[in-house]
Inverse folding.
């Protein structure tokens, strides 16, 4: 039934890059053969899923929506895929995204644009735009995205679904094509909070091939998730509802704050003074790491290879000139510039220091408060093409999601109403490190 739905509507939405129908049907039929008691072993028995196309799937194309990896078929599964396959979920296909996860509207895909199911003139957000749009359109009950500066939460907000960026280290990044390794995390996109908590439970856990994934954590989020909110202290930073935030979005957050108060929590206005620097710091750090991570795409080891080149240098140059899109090149150039002698101290080191300052300011708040709330995005989804010529405008929109990446803290976006034009608005809940359960608890009451 879902494949029929995808066939009927994904021509317009454009959420999938590749539909895995034959394989998925085979897998589903094999599951049907299992005896009742064996079925219980996979907690996601037969449940369909969509996967962002920067997560490695064994024997299935993984393009990162880039010409560079147009024909790339991984020989292994990402840890998260192993876990979901073990849970007996069925992969329906790979989903569109901004090339190498760089962007906020999915317009940077080499292959196609994705439209927002709520309003097909609007962008779905990005970079996990295909994943969020597919969940919103009812093509799959859940998807996995990746979030380096907001790429799970922002498209979830634009598409009216639930998206979680877990604590850095909660989920193994092994098999996620690296963008900025100190910021990247994989997270679930779902239609409701409980599903989200369940999927995160299943993909969490350390792995010996990702040294930054943390062993020994309690990865159970559903048990005790029903607690009432009396005594919970919530902080609302004034910078999150200040300049640049649309009135409708601010009103929606204030309404959410009232709702939390009516549920027994207290909400107080606080300040995170260095918020205004997070976008600059993020783009310096993320581009620096990207310039290093993307050095592996050299026309020899992976993917696209330019033709007719005579020297090694010419081969590198032509391959990368033809294989990467505009935005990816822009980031590589910015990153190599920032890391070069003379600029490193002035830009990179200062960005890293800012990261420490922001973490300190947020940690201080968590000494006193359980959660920080605010909008996920300054505005609801904008029209396709509206910002694609103005990178800086798009970068600035990431101000509310970036703090959780710079500090490694967990953050969830949950639908909190519609704008007057009928486009979804997202509420963001940020927790202290490894406090996902508290986030889910509050979100469940809000839902
Ligand atoms: N919009 C941000 C960027 O372009 C975030 C991307 C992401 O989280 N992958 O860098």
């Amino acid at each position: 039934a879902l494949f029929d739905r995808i066939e009927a509507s994904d021509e317009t939405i454009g959420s999938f890059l590749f539909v895995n129908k034959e394989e998925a049907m085979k897998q589903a039929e094999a599951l049907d053969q299992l005896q009742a008691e064996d079925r219980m072993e996979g907690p996601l028995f037969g449940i369909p899923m969509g996967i962002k196309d920067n997560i490695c799937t064994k024997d299935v194309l993984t393009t990162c929506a880039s010409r560079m990896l147009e024909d790339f078929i991984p020989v292994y599964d990402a840890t998260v895929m192993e876990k979901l396959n073990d849970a007996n979920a069925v992969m329906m296909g790979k989903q569109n995204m901004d090339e190498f996860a760089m962007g906020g509207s999915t317009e940077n895909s080499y292959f196609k644009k994705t439209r927002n199911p709520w309003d097909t003139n609007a962008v779905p957000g990005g970079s996990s735009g295909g994943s969020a749009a597919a969940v919103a359109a009812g093509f799959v009950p859940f998807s996995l995205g990746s979030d380096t500066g907001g790429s799970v939460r922002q498209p979830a907000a634009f598409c009216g679904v639930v998206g979680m960026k877990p604590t850095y280290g909660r989920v193994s990044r092994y098999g996620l094509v690296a963008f900025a390794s100190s910021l990247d995390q994989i997270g679930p996109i779902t239609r409701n909070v409980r599903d989200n908590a369940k999927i995160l439970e299943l993909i969490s856990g350390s792995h010996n091939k990702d040294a930054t994934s943390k062993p020994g954590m309690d990865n159970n989020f559903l048990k005790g998730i029903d607690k009432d909110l009396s005594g919970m202290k919530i902080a609302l930073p004034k910078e999150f509802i200040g300049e640049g935030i649309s009135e409708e979005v601010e009103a929606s957050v204030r309404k959410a704050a009232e709702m939390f108060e009516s549920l027994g929590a207290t909400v107080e206005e606080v300040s995170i003074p260095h918020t205004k620097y997070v976008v600059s710091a993020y783009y310096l750090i993320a581009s620096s790491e990207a310039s290093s991570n993307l050095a592996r795409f050299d026309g020899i080891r992976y993917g696209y290879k330019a033709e007719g080149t005579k020297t090694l240098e010419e081969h590198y140059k032509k391959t990368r000139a033809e294989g990467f899109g505009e935005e990816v090149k822009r980031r590589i150039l910015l990153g190599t510039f920032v890391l070069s002698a003379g600029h490193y101290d002035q830009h990179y080191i200062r960005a890293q220091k800012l990261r420490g300052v922001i973490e300190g300011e947020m940690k201080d708040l968590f000494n006193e408060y359980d959660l920080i709330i605010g909008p996920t995005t300054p505005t609801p989804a904008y029209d396709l093409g509206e910002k694609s010529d103005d990178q800086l405008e798009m970068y600035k929109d990431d101000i509310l999601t970036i703090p959780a990446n710079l500090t490694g803290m967990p953050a969830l976006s949950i639908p909190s109403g519609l704008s007057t034009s009928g486009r979804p608005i997202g509420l963001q809940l940020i927790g202290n490190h490894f406090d996902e359960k508290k986030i889910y608890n509050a979100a469940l009451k809000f839902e």
Notes: The pocket of glutamine is lined by residues 101-104, 127, 147-151, 179, 286, 398 (CB under 6 Å). The first helix runs from residue 2 to 13. The mean pLDDT is 97. The chain is about 40% helix and 15% strand.
